[in-house]
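Email to the structure team, subject: histidine kinase model.

Hi all, the expression group asked for a predicted structure before they design truncation constructs. Nothing fancy, just the tokens so they can compare against earlier work. One-line instruction: predict histidine kinase, return tokens.
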Amino acid sequence: MTVDQGLAAALRHRRYLLSAWPWRALAYAVTTLPLAGAAALGATVVAAPLLLVAAALRRGRPVDAGALAALAVVALAVVALAPLAGAPVAAVERWRLGLVDDRPVTAPGWRGLAARFTTATGWREGAYLAVLGAAVPLAYGTFGLLVLLDAALVAGPWLAGGEDRIVLLWATVDSPAEAVPYALAGLLAVPALVYLAGLLVAVQAAVTRLLLDDAPAGTALREVTRSRARLVSAYEAERRRIERDVHDGVQPRLTSLTLQLGLARLDVPDDSPVAKPLAAAHEQAKELMGTLRGIVQGIRPPQLTELGLAAAVGDLAARSVVPVTVHADLTRPVPDLVETTAWYVVSETLGNVTRHAGAGRAQVRLTRTDRLLVVEVRDDGRGGADPARGTGLTGLADRVAAADGRLLLSSPPGGPTLVRVELPCRP
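Reply from the structure team: attached below.
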């Protein structure tokens, strides 16, 4: 089981500066620079006609029509080829996104050259090139100026003095003593810059996922229909009552009956007419004990009590035939009903993946926010899951609805399939 979280969530944690996330954000930012530089060249070519016109107007000279026409043709060619050029860049960016976001990114299959210009995927990847070549350099350049300014403040005591003077926007520093307060302010600003860098990278990663996470047409999450008439009003209280009654009432009496039957068998000779029926009754009582024990455990899985939700889901993943990766971000306690419902959701969904999906691997993600526990199970199988065909999703939606949650499904033909469950966690 792997327990982790994305950069955006990590920024909200108090120990962010002491974690590996600032270094992961730095790695993402550094590897962005060559890609953004190359994309910026294309953006400059596209903007060249406007730059030519602006320069001519600023100098009061006529615009060179021939040069403008040539630049416009080149710019239009660059824009027209953007969907094609965006394909390799998008492949690299989907891979790089794993540095700051562990959620999988759905990549489209190659559908031919014409599809690059006739599908939304190709043009979204072209739009990402525009973001990478225009907005990213501007944002990174602004942040770079802030870093240089902070570095100048910190180095002020060594740079000031003699004939050297440090000119700030609001003051002029003539001596090392005058530079010390600014140096201290610069040191105090370093953590803020680290957070700002993380926020900048998180925004870039969010835009990357928005444009490059390929969701085929018709794959929007849709809520699975469930019948409120089938729900039990006091589900959790009734569950606890049944569990307590079975465990404290029926189970001890059945255990006593089994022991008495066993003792009776010892007192009855093997050749007695009642020996065989008594042995059969004893064996049936022992089988019933095992069945009852399974029912009691099934009401609330013992793994939850012993291990907690994250580890219990990890245990389910370890026993799955299909390789399953678990990502858990459970920084707050989860109510018992929500915990039990989430466990059954994962258990039933992984069972469906094994039986019906034909998947090579699956991923489970548990995220605890202020008001929700979000459970996501994704697989790379054939897709086409339909609650109306009896895959158990409707019954699972009933269980989720009993906890006041909702179940949503995305399963286009050809996959992938995503089951998302949102369970409210009231304080």
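The radius of gyration is 32 Å. The longest helix spans residues 21-59. Ping us if the truncation boundaries need rechecking.
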